[in-house]
Amino acid sequence: MRHLMFATAVLAAVVSPVMASDPLPRADPESVGMSSARLQRIDDRLKADVETGLIPGAVVAIARRGKLVYFKPFGYRDKAAGSPMTSDAIFSIASMTKPLVSVGTMMLFEEGTLALGDPVAKHIPQLGKMPVAKARGNVAVGAQLETVAQQRPMTVQDLLRHTSGLLYGGRGSTSLHKLYPASSTAVGLGMTQAEFIDKLAALPLAYQPGTVWDYSLATDVLGIVVENVAGASLGSMLRSKLFVPLGMPDTGFVVPQEKASRYAKPLPLNPITGSPQSMPMDATKPTKFECGGACGVSTAGDYLRFGQMLLNEGSLDGVRILGSRTVRYMTTDHLGGEIENNVQSIEPQRAGYGFGLGFAVRNQPGVAATVGSAGDYFWNGAFGTAFWVDPEEQLVVVLMMQAPGSLEIRQQYRLLLNAFVYQAIEQ
Questions:
Q1: 120 is in which domain, residue-wise?
Q2: Of the chain's two ends, which shows fewer C-beta atoms within 10 Å, N or C?
Q3: Which of 187, 214, 230 is the last residue of a domain?
Q4: Which secondary structure element, helix H or strand E, spans residue 198, and what is its range?
Q5: Residue 90: φ, ψ to 5°
């Protein structure tokens, strides 16, 4: 009996219940094989970079073996106003919206209302006859691009894995790139949903569907497919099926007025160039449509719960979001050896990664310039956010930061956090 009482007391000291502000039950890092002293390196670096003005602030959340071992805010939520960062700060997450939409898509797949092999034209007929450019190089001003017909239709699976043939106009300088909208943010801010589809329908694809991985507006199209199938707006569908059941109260497509004071801001000046910078979008104001590629907002705690659900293969706290086999399928490489893999063009340190349904997926422990395990998966956001899940290490990591003007800083922090987290694992 005394042994039982002692064990209970030790357990209570190691694992505390979920507090109102905690996304998962807390545990001492040592109890799940991590070092508190080595995790302190995260604190030291972020505090130093806040002091030198390299970053405004950040929130870092780390879970291992289902327990919250690190959850800290640093610096300023709004440095210009002198507002300190808080762990519940809300961030524009840019392309970290994509995994949320991908999970929502697979929920419809599991319900039998959407098939991965569906031609996109089944749900958006205007996109059914897009030709394919024969070449993507520059052509004379006023000249038309030569095109051929699609060899097979673009599918929902193509949208999920970025093999649709669509482009991001801002990610190249060819004549074809110049015809495309620059980014998901530009689409959400500048076009209605109908205008966006009409714009795409008038353009040629860059590649035959299913042949080349290229980062693109595919998830924005996917969000519209989801809306058409669900019969509801993307935000309301994800809120009812994903955000509310999973306990993600601050995730969505707009920051409501009562939460606007928690919205994080970047530094007024780019710390690398000294030029003025601001967020490309103000998420306290609704976009023209809820773009699935980049219009989302979230907190570190909310997104950690999302990542933990994925690590748990579809469930968290007794709530099942997806079936375990579906999550395994999503987080497996879908490019194989036949599809041209350009993931490294977006993430230059990630050689050896393929792409699943919404995530880049590591195919082997080595090759990439980052530590990790075969089967780990991730995606990042262009405004400074990042997350990854490592099933072998039972690890989920989320970084929230707003650094929209400096790719150098964003890439540096993706590598830094990777090193700091893995060097703190002891067993």
A1: 102-230
A2: N
A3: 230
A4: helix 193-201
A5: -105, 135
With a CB cutoff of 8 Å and minimum separation 6, the contacts of 26 are 15, 16, 18, 19, 67, 68, 69, 71
Determine phi and psi for 221, rounding to 5 degrees: -65, -40
pTM: 0.94
CATH of the domain at 62: 3.40.710.10
Q: Contact at 8 Å (CB) between 110 and 297?
A: no
- Reference 108, options 261, 228, 256; nearest CA is 228
Residues 386 and 268 in one domain: yes
Residue type present at position 24: L
In sequence order, what are the residues at sequence separation of 6 or more whose Cβ sits closer than 8 angstroms to the Cβ of residue 38?
420, 423, 424, 426
Residues in Cβ contact with 278 at an 8 Å cutoff, skipping those fewer than 6 apart: 266, 268, 404
By CB neighbour count within 10 A (0-12 exposed, 13-18 middle, 19+ buried), where does 82 fall?
Answer: exposed
**What letter represents residue 122's amino acid?**
K
* Listed residue (226, 225, 220, 214) closest to 185, CA to CA: 220
DSSP 8-state secondary structure symbol assigned to residue 18: P
Query: Do residues 267 and 416 share a domain?
Result: yes
- The per-residue pLDDT string of the chain (427 residues; one tens digit each, 9 = 90 and over) reads 334 333 333 333 333 334 448 999 999 999 999 999 999 999 999 999 999 999 999 999 999 999 999 999 999 999 999 999 999 999 999 999 999 999 999 999 999 999 999 999 999 999 999 999 997 666 654 567 899 999 999 999 999 999 999 999 999 999 999 999 999 999 999 999 999 999 999 999 999 999 999 999 999 999 999 999 999 999 999 999 999 999 999 999 999 999 999 999 999 999 999 999 999 999 999 999 999 999 999 999 999 999 999 999 999 999 999 999 999 999 999 999 899 999 999 999 999 999 999 999 999 999 999 999 999 999 999 999 999 999 999 999 999 999 998 889 999 999 999 999 999 999 9
Distances 305 to 275, 326, 389, 399 between C-alpha atoms, Å = 36, 18, 11, 13
Q: Which of 8, 11, 34, 63 is nearest to 311 (CA)?
A: 63
Residue 6, domain member (yes or no): no
Q: Say if residue 122 is in the same domain as residue 170.
A: yes
Q: Tell me whether residue 201 is in a domain.
A: yes
Dist. CA 381–CA 94, nearest whole Å: 5
Answer with the one of 230, 246, 264 that is the final residue of a domain.
Answer: 230
